[in-house]
TrEMBL record:
Source species: Hohenbuehelia grisea
Record-annotated Aminoacyl-transfer RNA synthetases class-II family profile domain positions: 91-345
Enzyme class name: ligase
Protein name per UniProt: phenylalanine--tRNA ligase
Classification via PANTHER family: PHENYLALANINE--TRNA LIGASE, MITOCHONDRIAL, PHENYLALANYL-TRNA SYNTHETASE
Amino acid sequence: MLFRPRPVARVLRRISITSRRQSTDALLPSRSNYAEVLGSRYPTDSATNITPAIISKLPLRLHTKPDHPLNTLRTKIESHYADFAHLSSFSPLVTPFKNFDELAFPADHPGRSVTDSYYVNRDLMLRTHTSAHEVEVFGQGETKWLLTADVYRRDEIDGSHYPVFHQMEGARIFDASPTGMKEVEDDNERLSYHLAQSNIIIEDIPHISPTNPSQATHDPRHSELVAKNLKLSLNSLMLTLFGGATRDEPLRVRWIEAYFPFTSPSFEVEVFFRGKWLEILGSGVVRQSTLDTAKVPNKIGWAFGLGLERIAMILFSIPDIRLFWSEDQRFLSQFTHGQINTFKPYSRYPSCFKDVSFWAPQPEGLHENDFCDLVRDVASDLVEDVKKIDSFVHPKTNRTSLCYRINYRSMDRSLSNEEVNEIQAVVVARLKDQFGVEIR
């Protein structure tokens, strides 16, 4: 059984760089029976694992900030789908039912675990994907829409992973009737003509196959047409996003079979960019159960989801995902709304590595995401990455020893060894207090 942390949604006294001699005991979090999130209080329970560091990110909504690279990318995609509804105002707080069950996630899906997702309590969580609003939007009568939002997942710490990131969901549904299929065919003809005139090479796969089947409730001919429409629409989007950067060479796009709980058939899209294949997004034909739950009868359609940071890091040449959260004008001043330009690094400050070794608590153990969340909550974006460098089980006591190396590196300034030592001391104190580990 994986260890479930004690409730940690409470006010944490943050480290003050100027208060160098502050006791580490004073920096330990106080326990509370409630979590204050976006101005409201919610009871905590054994599932609670949301942290103050994550709570502080909820109001920021980077995709709405003028001149920010994520906002530029969002508006570029919205311009491509100009006749779609553009949505971005949904609360990040959802029920597990809305986040998982409405989308046919199996009961044992790992995403439901407290080690993978952030819970305010067992009945309320932070959305892990924009698809959490699919049923709601379809139920409102929208047939063509884009939804952009911040999403939250517990994850490792490195240059390409962050517990908060931004997704864009796109969807389109048609009448499952001869009239609706004629609309799909006409759109397929229009898009095919456009792509045939463009400098693009598409490595396609069958729209439906035994390993990537249509749904039993769908007419296979309808599913084939809709899957083709999805591919053509996204090939056109890839041309908009990446075509201008390939100069005289054709843009190369390839399709790969995939599995997602909420679509079938399902696909991933890759683009060959700057010498390598890059995974861009996932997509597929919407599960009929999703439309049935939304009370949208006799419809069939497609949906896709993409991570804005992933694409922005590629297009803007941004090397570290933490930079999107920077308030440093040396970063922010490089970007103008509507323009995609190459980021120019202004400095790379030195690293300061600190190791921590400990005996994991018994019998629960300690999940790596719990450790990473603790480090983030103490040190915020002063940590570049965390790596497990050693693990062994004592042959006599059967206790597990773990050693993690924390790489402290600010994006904006040099860190002194003294202040890093003080941050590390708080990490160690929190480890002992919150998880009951024995430091080696």
